[in-house]
Design goal:
Layout (H helix, E strand, L loop, with lengths): L9 E2 L4 E2 L3 E3 L15 H12 L4 E8 L19 H12 L4 E7 L17 E3 L12 E3 L2 H20 L4 E6 L4 H6 L14 H19 L4 E7 L17 H14 L3 E5 L16 H7 L10 H9 L4 H9 L18 H10 L4 H10 L4 E4 L5 H9 L5 E4 L1 H5 L3 H6 L14 H5 L16 H9 L13
Parallel strand pairs: 3-4, 3-12, 4-5, 5-8, 6-7, 8-9, 9-10, 10-11, 11-12
Antiparallel strand pairs: 1-2
Helix pairs in contact: 1-2, 3-5, 5-6, 6-11
The structure holds flavin mononucleotide and iron/sulfur cluster (SF4).
Length: 464
């Protein structure tokens, strides 16, 4: 299609991306226990570059071992990691695809601490236990805050030295930045708590520290939960930040030196609205045991997930917030299959209204995540100023080559992502991939696809 906005380059202050579709960050346990990377990870990222996305935002990349969500995620906590990330960047650049490293810290949302963190509580803005799983934590001292700010600045410097195209601060979805930003979580009495200005200080300090470390010509974006919905499941918690709070934070972040904002939702992960979709009890009962010793509420949840008797209660709590969402502002081209049509109505683009509000109030480009997978829908979202570009995770796990097929004129994949979230619930202990068997001809075919990233091993690859 001529003049298709999806395939017009997106220009940021320091970076140009060839089209408007970014692979959103997706974490999987590809890497070594110590945070060094593997060939499987490189193969994984290559799939999306080959499929035509303009840029890839890496997975959650910890800037410190204390800030890891779980082992087997490649980190950026020391200079020894630079060569690995350089290799990842070089591989995706072969496809004219950019690579943005997501600089991250779990704070109290530490799913599986690993042996290095044994006996240490997670560091957070607060000493209040995380309510969903019950992860224990302690409020950071001012010295620990200063150290952590420097970890982020060092992470950005390493990303730049690795030849990557930019960094994203993971300041959404309940991780450390969000624990500072959220009025529902941050209960500090010092200059990092209380007013919105104080709660935003940690994020803004990090942005300024990165600018000091790498200068003004390296791409820096941040991901934000536009609305916290902090009491969506644990209804006794405070609701947290509103869209008005987030608009103000975005304006301050732009002033401090951010080049783009990436709009998400929810102050925990997973959250009923992120990734939006189904909650599959069959999968979670098999995988949640990996987290049983991590939090004080994990056993409670395990019993809730295991006993069918409790499922209606859990479903009620999990789905409550979805029912409060306003109807979709628009829909994409007509879809014949009624089941897929309904799934798209319920799940596609649910963050777009927030994204549009933020876009109205900032001058930097806005990216939006959440359920997007139909070309006509994405085109309208960008044309009608809801966002400047979209990011996609599960919808690309299901169809790695979606962007190429949009380019060839297709509106929707033949077998779209069903938002079943089986990929997400598996990843706690299994390799990441699409586990929706209906999308494949057999279990074996599905496994062949999931395992394909392991085919070309480091040893087979030594001659490169
Ligand atoms: C398995 C899995 C892992 C994810 N890991 C991350 C992550 O490390 N960092 C992040 O910001 N978001 C993460 N997300 C959220 C996605 O980036 C994305 O914002 C969300 O899934 C909505 O997009 P989608 O509907 O296209 O999947 C993850 C999602 C999934 C399914
Ligand atoms: S398992 Fe597959 S179909 Fe289900 S949400 Fe994940 S990518 Fe989509």
């Amino acid at each position: 299609m001529e003049n298709d906005i999806i395939f017009e380059p997106l220009r940021f202050r320091n970076l140009t991306v060839k089209n408007r579709i970014f692979r959103s960050s997706i974490s999987g346990r590809w890497d070594n226990y110590d945070g060094s990377g593997t060939q499987a990870r490189i193969n994984w990222e290559e799939k999306f570059a080959r499929g035509g996305v303009g840029a890839i935002i890496s997975s959650f990349v910890p800037v410190a071992i204390r800030g890891r969500i779980m082992p087997n995620y490649a980190t950026i906590n020391c200079d020894e990691r630079i060569p690995f990330w350089r290799k990842v960047g070089e591989r995706v650049h072969e496809y004219d695809c950019k690579f943005i490293l997501q600089l991250s810290h779990s704070g109290r949302q530490q799913d599986i601490g690993g042996v290095e963190n044994l006996g240490k509580k997670a560091l957070s803005s607060t000493s209040q236990t995380e309510p969903f799983h019950g992860f224990l934590c302690q409020a950071m001292t001012l010295t620990e805050i200063k150290e952590t700010i420097q970890y982020f600045a060092d992470g950005a410097r390493r990303a730049r030295e690795a030849g990557l195209d930019g960094v994203e601060l993971h300041s959404a979805n309940g991780y450390l930045f969000n624990q500072f930003l959220s009025s529902g979580i941050n209960d500090r009495q010092d200059e990092y708590g209380g007013s919105l200005e104080n709660r935003a200080r940690f994020l803004l300090d990090v942005i300024r520290a990165i600018r000091k470390e790498v200068g003004n010509d390296f791409h820096l974006q941040f991901k934000i939960s536009a609305v916290d919905y902090n009491n969506a499941v644990t209804f006794w918690e405070k609701p947290g930040n509103t869209i008005e709070d987030s608009i103000q934070v975005c304006q301050w972040a732009e002033e401090a030196g951010a080049d783009a904002v990436h709009v998400s939702t929810g102050s925990l992960f997973p959250h009923p609205l992120n990734p939006i979709g189904d909650f599959n009890f069959d999968v979670i009962t098999r995988t949640y045991d990996a987290m049983l010793s991590s939090g004080v509420e994990t056993t409670r949840n395990y019993i809730l997930f295991r006993k069918a008797f409790f499922h209606p209660l859990f479903n009620f709590l999990w789905n409550r917030v979805k029912k409060q969402l306003p109807p979709q502002a628009f829909s994409g081209d007509d879809v014949k299959d009624p089941k897929i049509k309904q799934l798209l109505i319920e799940n596609q683009g649910r963050n777009l209204l927030d994204s549009r509000e933020i876009k109205k109030h900032v001058n930097i480009p806005v990216l939006c995540t959440g359920g997007l997978q139909q070309a006509s829908y994405i085109r309208q979202a960008i044309n009608d100023q809801y966002c400047d570009g979209v990011t996609m995770a599960r919808t690309l796990i299901a169809n790695n080559d979606l962007v190429k097929s949009f380019q060839a004129g297709k509106d929707l994949a033949d077998k779209p992502c069903t938002y079943c979230n089986k990929c997400l619930l598996n990843v706690i202990e299994n390799p990441l991939g699409c586990y929706e068997q209906d999308r494949f001809n057999s279990y074996e075919e599905m496994m062949e696809e999931v395992m394909s990233v392991f085919h070309e091993t480091q040893f087979a690859n030594l001659s490169r």
